[in-house]
Design goal:
This protein has about 220 residues and is an alpha/beta fold. It is built from four helices and 25 strands. An eight-stranded mixed beta sheet has the order 7-10-13-16-19-22-24-25, covered by helices on one side. The longest helix is centred in the N-terminal third of the chain and has 13 residues. The chain is globular. The chain starts with a helix and ends with a strand.
């Protein structure tokens, strides 16, 4: 209870991903959830799993004055991680601390390094000497093997597998069920499509897919 009272949290962005995070936070008691802010005015005045959606981002200074100490980025991504980066920077610019969320069903090695604001969802595995930057999502059932290095604002989607010593640059998206062979590098803002099998390095700002994965298009983000 002391920990819950010492951390009062706002969620930046409401929706399906926010609901999954609220479920973890409420079950674990790692913080008290004060409010959700979202740009979609049709959501204002509603609540998500009992947490009120108060309004837009411009309410953040008022919430800080009320004693909010932490924030959570409440949106996921399907390829473009720039909105998640923006919200992370917004929270930090108001001197709030990013809350790191770890589902109790996660296996995370004590020898892994987990950055601020990471979100490790149910059934995910992060093995020894893996390094995650800030604001990384490792979604349900995803595996990050030993010695992988994951950049800031990356989303490793549901069931994706990163074999050992994979490097993923910032803002990349690894799609659901994708497999990345060991020693592969994934470029900045690259998107690996769902179910792809990556056996060669992926350049910056491209979309790859297929088995084996090949470049499909330039990523416009």
């Amino acid at each position: 209870m002391k920990e819950r009272k010492s951390k009062s949290c706002v969620i930046l962005g409401g929706g399906g991903h926010a609901g999954a995070l609220i479920d973890i936070i409420q079950a674990s008691g790692i913080a008290g959830l004060h409010a959700i802010l979202d740009r979609d005015s049709s959501k204002w005045g509603q609540d998500l799993l009992g947490v009120p959606i108060l309004g837009d981002d411009d309410l953040l200074p008022e919430l800080v004055n009320q004693g909010i100490t932490h924030f959570v980025v409440g949106i996921g991504s399907t390829g473009n991680n720039r909105p998640r980066e923006r919200l992370y920077q917004l929270g930090c610019s108001h001197k709030l601390k990013p809350l790191t969320i770890v589902h109790p069903g996660v296996f995370c090695s004590k020898r892994a390094a987990i950055g601020a604001g990471c979100q490790l969802l149910a059934g995910s595995i992060i093995n020894a000497h893996a390094t995650l930057g800030c604001n990384v999502i490792v979604n349900s059932g995803a595996i990050v093997e030993h010695d992988c290095v994951i950049g800031d604002h990356v989303h490793i989607a549901t069931g994706a597998i990163l074999a050992s010593t994979v490097r993923v640059a910032k803002l990349a998206h690894i799609g659901p069920g994708a497999t990345i062979r060991q020693l592969i590098s994934i470029g900045e803002s690259a998107v690996v499509g769902a179910g792809a099998v990556v056996v060669h390095d992926v350049p910056d700002h491209v979309v790859v897919g297929g088995v084996p994965a090949r470049i499909l298009e330039r990523n416009k983000q």
